């Protein structure tokens, strides 16, 4: 299928680079689009291409995939280090990606979805709440609470050391010195790392030799991770449809935290619960099941129905309903009601 190398500028003038996928044989009409970015330190090559290719092969949709700032092919802001994650900058970059793709001649700017996984699975919860251009949110194995997650992952005796490292790094950077770094993963669980789980080490080390990925992250990244609470606006995503995919056996972004956040989200929402670990949804036997559910969610909300549930409507009626929806902020469909999420939940069946 056609794939173009693309680049776009963020609101603070950083160049981000990625790929734009369009369906084979696309006739030039306006397509809905989905924007995908990866999670904590991961690059677009880490199976995001598989999701984009799946969606574009199954649906009449365009897919924009890009590297986060300071990672992979994307630039960092002048004077700022690479390999540093500032979550609210990555959130802003999602909105800038939406701005870019909405101006593409292939894309219908009124039908844009966002997709994120792990750390970016938290980002899309926030973006979906504050950026009303988003018409569907797909959040996979999301980080929902940095504070809770940090204290699940980090041993209590390591936390004291991290606090000292955070303080020393702040002093060093204030004096113009280079930032401190810590490993993203380490084979030895007795050594501090950002993601201290065996499956994290297995996943990232498998990519290290065949990509631009580097096994380090700034100390500031960990401090910002601890204070990041993307779940704080989850109730505000509604009336934008939300699909949350939760891995039941996830030890990196624990399932109970994600499920508690999902319970607070309002309709329309759908839960996909996979009997799997954090990284299992990217490849292997769970990929087809996971991506298939996500594709059907996209089909329902931004392909067939133009954000209106029920049978496909003539374009004039659909456009009028979208206009009313945007003005009044009300859930609008052919029957003036959304379908509930109960029948849509996938409880590991």
Provide an overview of this structure.
The strands form two sheets. The chain has a nine-stranded mixed β-sheet with strand order 1-2-4-3-5-6-9-10-11, sandwiched between helices. It has one domain (3-145, 228-347): 3-Layer(aba) Sandwich (Rossmann fold). It is of the alpha/beta class. It is built from ten helices and eleven strands. Helix content is 37%, strand content 18%. Helix 2 (87-102) packs across helix 3 (119-130) and helix 5 (156-174) packs across helix 7. It has helices spanning 48-58, 87-102, 119-130, 146-153, 156-174, 198-208, 219-226, 255-264, 285-303, 315-328, and strands at residues 3-9, 15-21, 31-37, 62-66, 107-117, 134-140, 181-182, 217-218, 242-247, 269-274, 346-347.
Which key features would you list for this structure?
alpha/beta, FrsA_esterase, nine-stranded mixed β-sheet, hydrolase, AB_hydrolase_1, 349 residues, Rossmann fold, AB_hydrolase_fold, AB hydrolase-1 domain-containing protein, disordered C terminus
């Amino acid at each position: 299928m056609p794939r173009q190398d693309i680049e776009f500028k963020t609101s603070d003038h950083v160049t981000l680079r990625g790929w734009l996928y369009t369906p084979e044989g696309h006739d030039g009409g306006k397509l809905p689009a989905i924007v995908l970015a990866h999670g904590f330190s991961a690059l677009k090559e880490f199976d995001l291409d598989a999701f984009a290719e799946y969606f574009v092969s199954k649906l009449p949709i365009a897919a924009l995939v890009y590297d986060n700032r300071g990672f992979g092919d994307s630039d960092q802001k002048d004077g700022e280090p690479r390999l540093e994650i500032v979550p609210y900058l990555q959130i802003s970059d999602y909105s800038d990606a939406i701005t870019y793709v909405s101006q593409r001649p292939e894309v219908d700017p009124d039908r844009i979805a966002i997709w994120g996984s792990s750390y970016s699975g938290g980002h899309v919860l926030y973006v979906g709440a504050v950026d009303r251009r988003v018409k569907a949110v797909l959040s996979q194995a999301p980080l929902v609470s940095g504070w809770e997650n940090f204290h699940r992952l980090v041993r209590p005796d390591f936390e004291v050391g991290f606090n000292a490292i955070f303080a020393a790094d702040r002093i060093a950077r204030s004096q113009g010195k280079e930032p401190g770094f810590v490993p993203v993963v380490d084979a030895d669980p007795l050594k501090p790392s950002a993601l201290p789980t065996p499956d994290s080490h297995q996943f990232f080390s498998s990519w290290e030799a065949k990509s631009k990925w580097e096994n380090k992250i700034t100390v500031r990244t960990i401090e910002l991770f601890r204070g990041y609470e993307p779940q704080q606006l989850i109730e505000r995503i509604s009336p934008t449809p939300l699909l949350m995919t939760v891995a039941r056996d996830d030890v990196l972004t624990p399932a109970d935290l994600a499920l508690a956040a999902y319970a607070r989200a309002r309709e329309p929402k759908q839960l996909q619960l996979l009997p799997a670990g954090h990284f299992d949804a990217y490849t292997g036997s769970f990929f087809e099941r996971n991506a298939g559910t996500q594709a059907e969610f996209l089909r329902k909300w931004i392909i067939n129905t133009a954000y209106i549930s029920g049978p496909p409507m003539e374009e004039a009626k659909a456009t009028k309903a979208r206009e009313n929806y945007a003005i009044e902020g009300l859930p609008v469909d052919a029957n003036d009601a959304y379908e509930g999420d109960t029948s849509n939940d996938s409880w590991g069946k």
